[in-house]
């Protein structure tokens, strides 16, 4: 075992030296490889971070949301509706929710206003999301004015700016008291936007939804798990498409690697011939070459992955901005919470390093079986 | 890629003649390097693929109604579990082949070349079948299917192999677990000591039995202790961060030990061969020692996990 | 020490350009001597040398190394034997460019996995013995031809081989350096090594260090008894007589 390790050390040493001697040739390959890993890793990190955010947001959201439908469209919940639900077994809490969109002509962006019944800011005070605060240049304690849809001007004191750990969702949020919300939007009294129900036991969610649909035929229950699943499949689907597109790139890369590996320079061939003549075994040469591949691919993998990490989490995936910008004006400069998971790294490894290894295997073998007596005849 | 290699392997079987100094023989000999490297890569890829399958299944669990972990996802259609079993089989087969190859390479006349390449060709359909299962599995995934998850699959009233295993009462399961593992350790130790042909075969059989008993043990009681939940029998959740990746501690020595034990057995038919006696005997006994230590390590880790748990299954 | 029986070697066997480079060679190489292979270009000297040095395998025939039959051994084992028994000095030296002299000397020992310190000491000792201690960190392409050859010799000796094999060792050297090489040869002999070399160079072939000269032509040995066949003896006598008349007397060497 010790002998084996010593042997591998010598082989790795030699490989390092020979890589250093052929910098330019290997640099190109390294660069392409890193770039490939970078793009793939960026996509993966980005979608998984989005997925993570969505899961986090949904984790604190109620299990069931009930909307009322009129003519197939989402409508306000009229007074007395909540009472008609009555008590359903398994439902811990039923509450109305108030929310709406507000277009701010000053920065040409949409905000989400959320009227709170519990833990609400005092009357005349609001909490705002990070993106909004940045765009309007406000801090806690400042006064912020909005002209309501009815033309009246409302001024609110900013109580606090919401923490930034999940900025993607809360960036455009304005939290205010129920009364303020109704006054601002001229919201009809005792009406709600939708109803939330919290269900403790996940097994019962479907039964509850069934009962709701039976009791209130004009309503539409939305299950959190459904939303989560939809989100996941949307993200996975997007990721899948991008990755499918990139698989062509992986293939191209494998071909490049094959080509590089089989196009050994005369100098390299001579070296292998010498090594074999002076007592290296075919297996030693293969192992030496595998070390070379391993060093190149690991370096490229690390470099690409780290670059992607920095790109996604420190530069907010700036390169993807053009693709995603349609979401909202407030989108730029949100920072995603860094998430890394083993599966992702393993998958990425599987789809980059393995094709590389397979692609260079045959050329490596071909180079290593040169006749040991070939150098005598040069 | 292995399929592309098949004709070459066939040629090797037909034309191999170690005594000849012809260029064809030289080419064939050189080709063996390619095959062994190739199989080693397949073997490594299989380890990675096995991990990925389980991980990925776990990850996709949220997409299937009723699935909470990998079990649910694998159960989303009929191909999931056969695929997993197939992958495990390929893992052990590749390990066995590499063992043979390692020993054969130590004998100057390569006595096992034909055997090895017949086996390699025999391995091809297995690998192809696993690939086919994988394809079937992923193409047949439908997100709206309601699958059963560890809760129902490993609960006592369903009739699958896995449920038979997990439905076992804790007490007999614990007895079986320690009994068989002890037997496997003993058999491997015996072989390491006596180095006889029958002890080698015995060690391999005991290792396979040990593997099965270990899986039953994990399903029926170790997982319960780890999760501290009397009805959670899942073998995969152990690998999750929530449980501190404890699964790796269990599976790594278990798989390595089983592969080594099988390797010790697979060498036995060939120890009679004059040029192999030395290397095969040495390798087999080394593998047996390794398997013995692996099983012992596995049993110790499992015991520590059980003792550390707050769950009480066996009322005193 | 090395025994060849009925050695044949074919290139491109079974193809239209099939070529038999060696055709039935029987030869015994004695240990502890310098044996030189000589003959015209293309006569198969290098080919024979690769067979003797376990660099390749005969198409037919037997090679016995210290009574062990190595002709049927696969490359994996042949390499092992080669590494332990033979050291090679090539005509072009064949050093690896970009590496230092010391690294080049250490290369053949890499697959053995010796402790690094030990290997380094050994390599430095070899270089110092060939007066190259001061050049050990220089890259080999900066060395002069003679220095390069000495690095190549040091490399051949790193695994302490019993046999040193050199193909045309003096072809790239001038007379002074060739003479220096001959002194190194003597040193190798003193150390009890066997040396096999090929050469066209009379300086080598006729040197007193060389104990046996094996002559080749068209892949066959130019057999010794052939020299005593009547026609050849007559020819030899005739030329000797004419030489006797023109030149001052010279001692007849006992070789051939
Ligand atoms: N790989 C090969 N393929 C085909 N023919 C070969 C090969 N190697 C050598 N030969 C042929 O075998 C014959 C003997 O070659 P070898 O190199 O042994 O000659 P040599 O005596 O060393 O000649 P020189 O004095 O020029 O070095 C030559 O005719 C050569 O062309
Ligand atoms: Mg020559």
Please name the defining characteristics of this protein.
A: 378 residues; alpha+beta; Barwin-like endoglucanases; 2 domains; ten-stranded mixed sheet; 55% helix; B: 316 residues; mainly alpha; 11 helices; flat; binds adenosine-5'-triphosphate; binds magnesium ion
Furnish the topology, listing elements before pairings:
The complex is a heterotrimer of chains A (378), B (316) and C (256).
Chain A: H1 2-21, H2 23-59, E1 64-70, E2 73-75, H3 81-85, E3 91-104, E4 109-116, E5 125-128, H4 130-136, E6 143-147, E7 153-161, H5 167-170, E8 173-177, H6 178-185, E9 194-199, H7 205-215, E10 219-223, H8 224-262, H9 266-277, H10 282-314, H11 321-324, H12 342-368
Parallel strand pairs in A: 4-8, 5-7
Antiparallel strand pairs in A: 1-2, 1-9, 1-10, 3-4, 3-9, 5-8, 6-7
Chain B: H1 2-15, H2 23-60, H3 70-74, H4 80-104, H5 113-139, H6 150-153, H7 161-166, H8 170-194, H9 197-227, H10 246-266, H11 277-308
Chain C: E1 2-11, E2 19-29, E3 34-38, H1 45-52, E4 60-65, E5 68-69, H2 75-85, E6 86-89, H3 101-106, H4 116-129, H5 145-157, E7 163-167, H6 175-190, E8 194-198, H7 202-205, E9 212-217, E10 220-221, H8 230-246
Parallel strand pairs in C: 3-8, 3-9, 6-7, 7-8
Antiparallel strand pairs in C: 1-2, 1-4, 4-5, 9-10
The structure holds adenosine-5'-triphosphate and magnesium ion.
Adenosine-5'-triphosphate binds at residues 11-12, 19, 21, 39, 41-47 of chain C.
Percent of sequence in beta strands of chain B: under 5%
Domain module tally of chain C = 1
Summarize the main sheet of chain C: 6 strands, mixed
Strand/helix succession of chain C: EEEHEEHEHHHEHEHEEH
Structural class of chain B: mainly alpha
Structural class of chain C: alpha/beta
Please, how many helices of chain C? 8
The largest pleated sheet of chain B is described as: none
C-alpha Rg of chain B, in Å? 22 Å
Family (chain A): Belongs to the ABC-4 integral membrane protein family. LolC/E subfamily.
InterPro entries (chain A): ABC3_permease_C, Lipoprotein-release_system
Domain ABC3 transporter permease C-terminal (chain A): 243-368
Protein name (chain A): ABC transporter permease
């Amino acid at each position: 075992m010790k002998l084996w390790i010593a042997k591998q050390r010598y082989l790795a040493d030699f490989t390092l030296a020979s890589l250093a001697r052929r910098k330019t040739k290997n640099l190109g390959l390294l660069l392409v490889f890193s770039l490939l890993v970078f793009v793939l890793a960026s996509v993966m990190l980005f979608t998984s971070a989005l997925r993570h955010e969505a899961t986090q947001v949904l984790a604190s959201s109620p299990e069931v949301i009930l909307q009322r439908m009129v003519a197939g469209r989402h409508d306000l919940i009229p007074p007395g509706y909540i009472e008609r639900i009555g008590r359903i077994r398994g439902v811990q809490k039923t509450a109305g929710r108030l929310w709406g969109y507000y277009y701010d002509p000053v920065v040409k962006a949409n905000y989400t206003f959320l009227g709170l019944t519990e833990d609400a800011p005092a009357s005349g005070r609001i909490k705002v999301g990070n993106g909004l605060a940045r765009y309007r240049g406000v801090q806690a304690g400042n006064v912020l004015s909005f002209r309501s849809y009815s033309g009246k001007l409302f001024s609110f004191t900013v109580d606090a700016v919401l923490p930034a750990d999940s900025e993607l969702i809360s960036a455009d949020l304005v939290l205010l008291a129920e009364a303020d919300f109704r006054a601002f939007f001229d919201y009809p009294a005792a009406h709600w936007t939708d109803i939330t129900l919290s269900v403790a036991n996940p097994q019962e969610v479907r039964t509850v939804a069934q009962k709701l649909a039976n009791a209130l035929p004009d309503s539409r229950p939305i299950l959190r798990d459904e939303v989560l699943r939809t989100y996941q499949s949307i993200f996975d689907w997007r990721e899948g498409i991008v990755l499918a597109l990139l698989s062509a790139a992986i293939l191209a890369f494998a071909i490049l690697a094959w080509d590089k590996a089989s196009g050994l320079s005369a100098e390299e061939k001579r070296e292998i011939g010498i090594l074999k003549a002076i007592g290296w075994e075919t297996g030693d040469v293969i192992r030496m070459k595998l070390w070379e591949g391993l060093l190149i691919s690991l370096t490229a993998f690390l470099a690409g992955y780290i670059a992607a990490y920095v790109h996604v989490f420190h530069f907010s995936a700036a390169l993807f901005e053009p693709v995603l910008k349609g979401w909202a004006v407030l989108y730029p400069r949100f920072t995603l919470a860094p998430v890394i998971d083993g599966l992702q790294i393993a998958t990425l490894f599987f789809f980059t390093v393995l094709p590389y290894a397979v692609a260079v295997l045959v050329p490596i073998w071909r180079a290593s079986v040169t006749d040991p007596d070939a150098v005598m005849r040069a | 890629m292995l399929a592309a290699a098949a004709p070459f392997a066939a040629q090797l079987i037909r034309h191999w003649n170690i005594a000849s100094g012809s260029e064809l023989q030289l080419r064939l000999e050189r080709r063996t390097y390619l095959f062994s490297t190739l199989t080693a890569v397949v073997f490594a890829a299989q380890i990675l693929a096995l991990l990925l399958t389980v991980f990925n299944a776990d990850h996709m669990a949220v997409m299937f109604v009723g699935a909470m972990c990998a079990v649910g996802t694998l159960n989303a259609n009929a191909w999931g579990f056969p695929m997993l079993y197939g992958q495990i089989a390929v893992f052990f087969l590749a390990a066995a082949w590499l063992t043979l190859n390692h020993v054969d390479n130590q004998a100057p006349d390569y006595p096992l070349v034909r055997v090895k390449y017949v086996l390699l060709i025999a391995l091809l359909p297995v690998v192809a079948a696993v690939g086919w299962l994988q394809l079937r599995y992923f193409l047949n995934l439908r997100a709206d299917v309601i699958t059963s998850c560890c809760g129902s699959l490993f609960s006592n009233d369903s009739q699958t192999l896995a449920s038979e295993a997990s439905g076992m009462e804790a007490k007999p399961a614990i007895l079986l677990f320690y009994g068989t593992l002890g037997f496997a350790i003993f058999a491997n130790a015996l072989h390491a000591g006596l180095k006889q042909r029958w002890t080698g075969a015995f060690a391999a059989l005991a290792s396979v039995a040990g593997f099965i008993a270990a899986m039953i043990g994990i399903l029926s009681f170790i997982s319960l202790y780890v999760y501290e939940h009397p009805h959670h029998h899942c073998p995969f959740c152990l690998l999750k961060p929530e449980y501190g990746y404890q699964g790796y501690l269990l599976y790594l020595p278990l798989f390595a030990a089983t592969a080594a034990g099988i390797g010790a057995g697979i060498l036995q038919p060939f120890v009679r061969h004059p040029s192999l006696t030395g290397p095969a005997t040495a390798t087999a006994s080394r593998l047996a020692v390794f398997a013995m230590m692996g099983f012992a390590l596995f049993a110790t880790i499992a015991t520590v996990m059980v003792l550390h748990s707050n769950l009480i299954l066996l009322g005193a | 020490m090395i025994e060849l029986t009925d050695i044949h070697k074919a290139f491109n066997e079974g193809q239209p350009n099939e070529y038999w480079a060696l055709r039935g060679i029987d030869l015994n190489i004695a240990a502890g001597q310098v044996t030189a292979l000589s003959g015209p270009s293309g006569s198969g000297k290098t080919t024979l040398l690769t067979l003797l040095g376990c660099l390749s395998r005969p198409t037919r025939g037997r090679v016995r190394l210290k009574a062990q039959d190595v002709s049927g051994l696969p490359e994996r084992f042949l390499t092992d034997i080669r590494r332990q028994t033979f050291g090679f000095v090539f005509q072009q030296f064949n050093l690896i460019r970009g590496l230092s002299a010391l690294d080049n000397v250490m290369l053949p020992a890499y697959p053995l996995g010796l402790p690094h310190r030990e290997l380094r000491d050994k390599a430095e000792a070899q270089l110092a013995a060939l007066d190259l201690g001061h050049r050990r960190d220089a890259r080999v392409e900066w060395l002069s031809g003679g220095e390069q050859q000495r690095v190549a010799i040091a490399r051949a000796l790193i695994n302490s081989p019993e046999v040193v094999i050199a193909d045309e060792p003096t072809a790239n050297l001038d007379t002074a350096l060739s003479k220096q090489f001959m002194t190194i040869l003597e040193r190798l002999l003193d150390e009890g090594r066997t040396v096999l070399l090929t050469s066209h160079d009379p300086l080598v072939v006729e040197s007193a260090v060389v104990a046996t000269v094996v002559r080749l032509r068209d892949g066959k040995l130019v057999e010794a008894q052939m020299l005593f066949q009547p026609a050849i003896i007559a020819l030899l006598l005739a030329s000797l007589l004419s030489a006797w008349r023109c030149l001052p007397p010279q001692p007849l060497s006992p070789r051939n």
